TrEMBL record:
This is Nitroreductase family protein. CDD domains: TdsD-like. Belongs to the nitroreductase family. Residues 165-195 are annotated as: Disordered. It comes from the Bacteria.
Length: 195
């Protein structure tokens, strides 16, 4: 069993933005201004990547028509809470270039997502990444080329009240804890705890 800290309690000194970022499911049906929205992708643009390949790409869905496309491939559970989400962003990563495979494509796209999510907190927005959707249907509906991996879908918007969610989701609408640092960091070899 994984031991956890109480929600959002740091063991070591870090910037509060890391503790403030979490993944709510209740979103307001409120438009995100373009300047604010694009600032998230500006932050993502500056993420590190191997050989500066910048393999990440994002497909935005913010019109009613485009959001309906996203809802068409979402799993039933996620569809239940995504009806008010004003913006979706599908994260893709280019798997190869002219020199061959980009081995770190998903790792690099994950770094871009991390930068995006922290900038969202700074802008007063909530984000919720998810993989509970039909990846192949998403590829077909959004015309995604074969040399791009689909990594995740992000809900972006202003956080709503938990009471707006179905009762079954309200109890989960709280920041989650994390296991202690020393349970994730080994020294010298796998399983050898940090002293």
């Amino acid at each position: 069993m994984v031991k956890t800290l109480s929600p959002r309690e740091a063991q070591y000194d870090i910037d509060p933005v890391y503790l403030e970022r979490w993944s709510p499911r209740s979103f307001l049906e409120k438009e995100v201004p373009e300047e604010v929205l694009l600032s998230l992708f500006e932050a993502a643009r500056w993420a590190p990547s191997a050989y500066n390949h910048q393999p990440w790409r994002f497909i935005l869905a913010r019109t009613k028509e485009d959001r309906e496309k996203v809802l068409s491939f979402l799993g039933e559970y996620n569809r239940m809470w995504c009806k008010n989400v004003p913006v979706f962003a599908l994260i893709l990563s280019k798997t190869e270039n002219e020199t061959g495979p980009i081995r770190s494509h998903a790792f690099d796209a994950g770094a871009a997502w991390g930068y995006l999510s922290l900038e969202a907190v700074r802008k007063g927005l909530a984000t919720h990444p998810m993989t509970g959707f039909d990846f192949e249907k998403a590829r077909e509906v959004l015309n995604i080329p074969a040399d791009y991996a689909i990594d995740a879908l992000i809900a972006i918007g202003y956080q709503g009240e938990k009471e707006a969610l179905p009762p079954s989701l309200q109890e989960r609408e709280t920041p989650s804890a994390r296991r202690p640092v020393k349970e994730s960091v080994f020294e010298g070899s796998f399983g050898n705890p940090v002293k």
